[in-house]
Amino acid sequence: MKQFFCVLSVVLCLCSCNHSRQSKVAADENVFKYAQNVFARPGSDTVVVYCNWNTSRDSIVYVLSEIKKPSEINSIAALSTTDIAMLAELDAVDKITGVSDYFRISNEQVQMRYSQGLIQNVGTAMDVNVEALVALNPDIVITSAFSSSDIQKFQRSACPVIFTTDWQENTPLARVEWIKFIGRILGESEKADSVFSVIERNYLNTKSLAADVAEKPVVLAGAASNDIWYLPGGKSYVAALIDDAGGDFIGKDNDNTGSVVVNFEQILQQSQNADLWIGCDEKTVAELDAANKNYKLLTVYQKGAIYNRSKRCNANGGNDYWEYGYVRPDIVLADYMKIIHPELLPEYETVFLEKVKE
């Protein structure tokens, strides 16, 4: 524990590092090919994680050998579904002893271990119960760093914490490439690299099918809350999927990497020529109508070309699209392509996306 706190003290100091130093580091060889927010040299056990807070870019430096040896990691608190999905890909679910938002988790092995009392719930992803985490006493904690205050909060837990910012990556392959970081923590670098290589190859092979499409159907993405539509930005993760699947999309001209807030009237105007709508969570037209009475005003609604991401939801509402789908963007891309260009994958059946039923 003392070793870890020495590392964490250095980390907090490094969070004030300047951009020139970061640029110099980033210019060196990096084992991460797509991810922009994590850096490690080949053969090194030092990993730099970058955190983007509004206009600032801070960094956290981990010397993995000073945190825990892989042989000492038998108990992991994995506090997001994406962490669980990556651990599952590395056959390390049996090491998970703590989770948050249990009801959101789709992994059947985790569900079974939870029912057996082998896994404890320690709150929600946005509000972890630090006291429960301390009582659990895991060998390491893996969690997303959503804000700088998260780092301070977990410092009080006296548990070795690995912060990830994979959610800030803007492309599907960049997000899943963080499995290499998890692999290094567990001493499973070779396995993690192998898993990623298969996913990368599948993704690029599928992407290549749409490289020369003559026509690109126009996709309306996102969904509304009351009179506000949350539209994926032109440089976002969702935009990358649509583009790689051979689609055009509304909002492609903005440079936002997250969601863009647009009023419903603007969406009505901008989406008149949309061929497809992908991104709602409702499974039936009746559910869509109940969620927002304005949906029926959309031209694409009237066409009936509406697709949700809810094909794999559990009884509690947990959606495997945000778990297994996160680490299998090759499958998600195939889903998008099947909807946008069905002629390119005539025998394929979607896994995560499906047409909204009448």
Question: Explain this structure to me?
Answer:
The protein has 358 residues and is α/β, with parallel strands linked by helices. Helices cover 36% and strands 19% of the residues. It has helices spanning 2-14, 19-26, 81-89, 108-115, 130-136, 148-155, 172-176, 179-186, 189-209, 237-244, 264-270, 285-291, 299-303, 324-327, 329-340; strands spanning 38-39, 46-53, 56-63, 76-78, 96-99, 120-121, 123-124, 127-128, 140-144, 161-164, 218-221, 223-225, 228-232, 248-249, 259-263, 276-280, 306-308, 354-355. Mean pLDDT is 89; it is low at 1-27.
Explain the layout of strands and helices.
Elements: H1 2-14, H2 19-26, E1 38-39, E2 46-53, E3 56-63, E4 76-78, H3 81-89, E5 96-99, H4 108-115, E6 120-121, E7 123-124, E8 127-128, H5 130-136, E9 140-144, H6 148-155, E10 161-164, H7 172-176, H8 179-186, H9 189-209, E11 218-221, E12 223-225, E13 228-232, H10 237-244, E14 248-249, E15 259-263, H11 264-270, E16 276-280, H12 285-291, H13 299-303, E17 306-308, H14 324-327, H15 329-340, E18 354-355
Parallel strand pairs: 4-5, 4-9, 5-6, 9-10, 11-14, 11-16, 16-17
Antiparallel strand pairs: 1-2, 2-3, 7-8, 12-13, 13-15, 17-18
Helix pairs in contact: 8-9, 9-15
Number of strands: 18
Quick one: biggest sheet? 5 strands, parallel
CATH superfamily of the largest domain: Nitrogenase molybdenum iron protein domain
Number of domains: 2
User: Which class of the largest domain in CATH terms?
Assistant: Alpha Beta
Structural class label: alpha/beta
Strand order of the largest sheet: 6-5-4-9-10
Shape: globular
